[in-house]
Amino acid sequence: MLQTYEEALFWIHSRLRLGIKPGLMRMEWMLDRLNNPERKLTAIHIAGTNGKGSTVSYLRNMLQVAGYRVGTFTSPYFEVFNERISVNGRPIDNGDILSLAQVIQPLALELENTELGPPSEFEIITAMAIYYFGTHEEIDVVLFETGLGGRLDSTNVIDPILSIITNIGFDHMNLLGETLPEIASEKAGIIKGNIPLITSVEQSEALEVIIEKATTLHAQMYRKDKEYQIINQQPVLDGEVFSLRTPFQTFDDLKITMMGEHQVKNAALAVMAVNYLQSQSLFELTNDHIQEGLLQTRWIGRFEQLCNDPTIIIDGAHNPEGINSLVKTLSSRYSTKKIQIIFSALRDKKLADMLIPLESVADSITFTSFDFPRVFTAKELYEMSTIHNKSYDEDWKSCIDTSLHKISEDEILIVTGSLYFLSDARPYIVKLTENVEKYS
């Protein structure tokens, strides 16, 4: 029996050796043994290549401002493991993690001796989250973010009141498929019969797959640029302003503090979702709740400015779509600055489609690496890059130290790439820049 929080974490993370195990049978087996806590949930299910975390955060803040208690299940974490299971933005405590692991571990050991085989780390964490939320009646709604894909994702055992697909892009193609229609088919696997779907997917070939699936299942669709439209979007000094027209009403001059056109799309998707919930009398929110919730939304690691002098921004642009959004935001907001980039990535990415856009906006790139399975070495990234002004350092801490010491007033530093890299780098940068005078 697990006795401490540390033992619980060690056991959970030990399941990483099992890798990714798509499929729902192990989840269904465990939940059946737990008396199906998923049936007690009021849930919203969110899938997509990028933007899931931001969309969840916008939704949570709007509902929370309106007085609801909102559970969230997200991945990965940035500062503490417990972030993955949170209530009103607060990670559950260490004691809860230990208690949940003590409930799930015996089931995992029993399952390991069946023909289904042992559950993966993500399956363990998903089961913990569902059990936690299913046994806490004071939680009004749970926002479940898929881990990978949708159709065979561990979270796809829930029966939501609303499904959301943020976008479709090229990521995890070894598991989800090589083409946009194939990837869209996997994401569309979260669509349930007669459960409405809201999506901001734009590519016609991906959207066709989603429309076909939703139509077959009689799921009412709300599509960006069709059933809802973003209008009058414009960047401002401290964020973005936009208006939104939905089938139910028009929202004028909504403001967000997260920067970039992609964040406007995420925010609009979330507002469309709460507006649907309003229309069905499922939740009560005023326009003031919606606007205040948007303004309060921050999402760690998404174009997050960690320091003003010097300007240091981290962004979890871990695939081509994320890189393109980052490049577009940098081009529109920092065209007069020299851009210095630190970059690290995992091997399961379309690297050429990431490096070319980065090189188009960077004045210099330093490649680095970190301790994680499937990660490129800094030298490998360096050799694949064609930018003239480049360097590499296998030690990411040394890389950041060097960059901070040499940054000039007309430069900004962008730390980007793998979310797992940023989860290590962010607290290190925050600590370093607590006394920024030594770098000025």
Describe the overall structure.
This protein is of the alpha/beta class and 440 residues long. It has 2 domains: 5-296, 3-Layer(aba) Sandwich (UDP-N-acetylmuramoyl-L-alanine:D-glutamate ligase); 304-435, Protein-Tyrosine Phosphatase, Chain A (Alpha-Beta Complex), CATH 3.90.190. 40% of the residues lie in helices and 19% in strands. The chain is built from 15 helices and 17 strands. The chain has helices at 5-14, 25-33, 52-65, 94-112, 121-134, 173-176, 180-187, 204-216, 261-279, 287-296, 320-333, 351-361, 378-384, 396-406, 419-432, and strands at 43-47, 70-73, 85-87, 90-91, 141-145, 162-165, 197-199, 221-223, 229-236, 239-245, 250-256, 304-308, 311-315, 338-344, 364-368, 390-393, 411-417. The strands form 3 sheets. The chain has an 8-stranded mixed β-sheet, sandwiched between helices. It has a 6-stranded mixed β-sheet with strand order 12-13-17-14-15-16, with helices on both faces. Strands 9-10-11 form a 3-stranded antiparallel β-sheet. The longest helix is centred in the N-terminal third of the chain and has 19 residues, at 94-112. It is globular. The model has no long low-confidence stretch (mean pLDDT 92).
